[in-house]
Specification:
mainly alpha; 2 strands; about 65% helix; rod-shaped
Length: about 160
Amino acid sequence: MKSDYPKILDLLNRRLELVRELIAVGDRWRRAFIGLRLDQSERCAVEEERLAAQICALDMEIATLEVEPSLGKQANPIPTEAGFGEPTAIDHSGPEIREALERMSALQMELKQSNEIRKSILKRSKITIGALRNLFNSHSATYAAPAEHSTGTIYEELV
């Protein structure tokens, strides 16, 4: 419906802002994690979860709006983990919506690259932790308290 057009445009723009913020928080997480500031990286992870929930809610709201009466219920995009499953279901006749969808596509690619970087960081961290655990486990017997030293030398004679 034409009355939904401004609302859809507003929702798409809000989603774009949230995705930009999500990318920025992911960048802060990466710097905190690499800098071993785990408390800050945990705060960033909580913030990312909050933003992801807001984006999901926006996706559901966009999916419930009827965009084109001629398509009926098929006009609603199906939200997926990576964004909209059927971007062609949205009415592309408006230039503002078309531009918003193009910006969203570019941001989704940037978010995907950011996620790939995070994935490689976590994979390398897992390998490093595994190596450190193997090192500790193989030498853990040698980490016993040293024997007490006496002040003199003891000589024993076997008889």
